[in-house]
Automatic annotation (TrEMBL):
Keywords: Electron transport, Membrane, Mitochondrion, Mitochondrion inner membrane, Respiratory chain, Transport. Pfam families: UCR_14kD. It comes from Trichogramma kaykai. This is Cytochrome b-c1 complex subunit 7. It is found in: Mitochondrion inner membrane.
Length: 120
């Protein structure tokens, strides 16, 4: 058992080192492979419009919502044209931040808490 634990720890140490070296490159590869960045979209632009997302959009700053709508309309236009943006205009992983997900999670927590209170 002790030997197995030592082997596991050694593997984990090497995999952590490999993630530091390969991780960012691997993440960028899959980010670019997804394709939405080639249309100028961010990850949160691709969320399905559930009631929680609609509520989060309502709470969001109107300027950010306008930017999101512009990116979505532009992506739709590019898709209809069967085209993508020039590579220098693609959204980069380092520039893509989750602007909507934290608010959606907050809304879902609030709704779960409200449901819990109504249950009692």
């Amino acid at each position: 058992m002790f030997r197995l634990r030592q082997q596991f720890m050694a593997i984990r140490r090497y995999s952590d080192q490999a993630n530091k070296i390969i991780g960012p490159t691997w993440k960028e590869f899959w980010y670019n492979k997804a394709g939405f960045n080639q249309l100028g979209l961010m990850r949160d632009d691709c969320l399905h419009e559930t009631p929680a997302v609609k509520e989060a959009l309502r709470r969001l700053d109107p300027d950010i919502v306008d930017e999101r709508n512009f990116r979505i309309v532009r992506a739709g236009y590019l898709t209809l044209q069967k085209d993508v943006l020039p590579k220098e205009q693609w959204t980069k992983l380092k520039d893509d931040h989750l602007y909507l997900t934290p608010i959606v999670e907050e809304v879902e927590r609030e709704w779960a808490e409200k449901a819990e209170w109504e249950k009692n």
